[in-house]
UniProtKB/TrEMBL annotation:
It catalyses: L-glutamate + H(+) = 4-aminobutanoate + CO2. The keyword Lyase applies. Its cofactor is pyridoxal 5'-phosphate. The gene is gadA. Belongs to the group II decarboxylase family. This is Glutamate decarboxylase. The lineage of its organism: Bacteria, Bacillati, Bacillota, Bacilli, Bacillales. The keyword Membrane does not apply. It comes from Neobacillus rhizosphaerae. One of its GO terms (molecular function) is glutamate decarboxylase activity. It is an enzyme of class 4 (lyase).
Amino acid sequence: MPQWQPRRAQITQRMLPPEFSVNPLFSRKGEEAVPRFRMREQGMLPETAYQIVHDEIALDGNARLNLATFVTTWMEPSADLLYAKSVEKNMIDKDEYPQTAAIEERCVRILADLWHSPSPQNTIGVSTTGSSEACMLGGLALKRRWQNARKRQGKPIDRPNIVFSSAVQVVWEKFANYWDVEPRYVNITPDHPYLDPEGVLAVVDENTIGVVPVLGVTYTGLYEPVAAIARALDEFQSRTDLDIPIHVDAASGGFIAPFLQPDLVWDFQLTRVKSINVSGHKYGLVYPGLGWVIWREAEDLPEDLIFRVSYLGGNMPTFALNFSRPGAQVLLQYYNFLRLGKDGYYEVQKASQTVAQFLSKAIHDMGPFELFTDGSDIPVLSWRLKEGYTSNWNLYDLSRQLRTFGWQVPAYPLPPDMEDVTIMRVVVRNGFSMDLAHLFLMNFKQAVSFLDSLDGPIPHDTKYDNGYHH
């Protein structure tokens, strides 16, 4: 997969002039030009600084047309007002902002109840800056629980491993790398495009700290079969006496399944599921960045991972990786819980799923494409170009052509052992209405028609084919 190259970005930036020019309407004497790469000696009027930054970010993509990202790009005006009124709140400072801390605690209880914790009022959880931090905390708890159990048994603790599919989000690769845990990948296949129980049982052993199924795979939007994996591990324990826990990465699905698939068993109803993370800033419908991690019961988070500090004015526990972090997004999450309730969350998520299924059917019916997912799990659709349809263009070309209309739609290869398959993906989020879907479909058909009209193949340098990870 193409990788972002810091050196290339740095070289590209240096192609720009070393100074910004300033609109004469905003500049004072001596402000006709402003250095780009160093801090100037004097300050400037706020209007001048605003104009410089505002003009440059005008080149960013339109967030509403970004169909690559899972992250919330729109909230209603009342939420925007609440956000503006609370941007100064520091979530770590629970002594200065006790009500914000109380609201965070309420959100933990609400999520624990939503995910069927056996004791939602007594379990433990925390907000984070995103699901990546929440995953790190969940993984650390798995590792520490495994280490503590091994120490009690007098066994070595130097070779922990963790199991997930090759389609796992990159944060789990980071976790394994940063905390010296061996990653064991179960490669996806055309028959099993997700983590399957047989693959799990083939790689687990006494050093496995946990198994991580994903509820809403980033590549395709599929749910991995948490209940089936849990049953397989139950049977494995009955044969070997090895008790291997599950952490569910529900970054996307944690705010979808409880409302759109309420009968799906994936959460704390399974006693083997010890922790769950979710992105509040994805289908939790909150601006970035906000994540949550909840443990099934308080004892599932080892006590030695909790630190207590007194230098903010009170003795308070902390077990997030970040210290200072925004509190405003936590308030927005609670706002959504109050504003929408379960019925409202259902309506919002169902509307997104309806748009996803409308688009998936329309794209399938066009002919050139074969669907991978249609939005039946999370509201994400993905497709490939039918083999043999054309040699003149590929999905990377289609992605670039859609960009001419303003739409950002990723094309990328699947992970091992399916890296020879390239797919496209559309993430439908709140705010991507059926009206926008019709406009997108019109531009999509225009892009395909243009590419089909080409007399010969488009030349490619695969180094610069687009690749997205969101």
